[in-house]
Known about the structure:
Layout: E1 2-8, H1 14-23, E2 27-30, H2 31-38, H3 44-53, E3 58-60, E4 66-68, H4 70-77, H5 81-108, E5 113-117, E6 132-137, H6 140-151, H7 155-163, H8 168-174, E7 177-180, H9 185-208
Parallel strand pairs: 1-5, 1-6, 2-5, 6-7
Antiparallel strand pairs: 3-4
Helix pairs in contact: 1-9, 2-5, 3-5, 6-7
Protein name: Dephospho-CoA kinase
GO molecular function: ATP binding; dephospho-CoA kinase activity
InterPro entries: Depp_CoAkinase (IPR001977), P-loop_NTPase (IPR027417)
Amino acid sequence: xxxxxxxxxxxxxxxxxxxxxxxxxxxxxxxxxxxxxxxxxxxxxxxxxxxxxxxxxxxxxxxxxxxxxxxxxxxxxxxxxxxxxxxxxxxxxxxxxxxxxxxxxxxxxxxxxxxxxxxxxxxxxxxxxxxxxxxxxxxxxxxxxxxxxxxxxxxxxxxxxxxxxxxxxxxxxxxxxxxxxxxxxxxxxxxxxxxxxxxxxxxxxxxxxx
Length: 210
């Protein structure tokens, strides 16, 4: 199995690249989706987070059930390394268990290429799982503009969110492949298709010569 780690800076177009990889037939495991599932009401990961932060982070969802208020929790840990570490400690195990379950399912289904869509790939040191890594990057000013448009925030807030993450230049240096999303969405899709097709060839060859 050829495992590709996909990461990138905030608002750099990683979602577009992941969608293109799916369209090209690659299996994509979404770590953000796993994180949401692992902290859903009733899940054991949910109970770990509530024990760590207390019931003050809960809200009532549309069905009338108690649920974690993700925005409140995100605002709470933003810029606070101690609380962020506390959150990571609470969620690391349930997320990791589900991640390996999905990787195993992909292996048993004989999927030759699996993409780990993980914003914090390098921060979480998950690159050791991967045969290769891809970073989606763009021009710094484009990144700020996209972040403002996506979240409806001002430039100052956007820059603070960007600066709170691992520097994009560092991610580019750590990655084996960089997809530049500067320009139009279609240009980004074309670059992503080329990368996906190269991985499909490698993956199928790996299965053929096992």
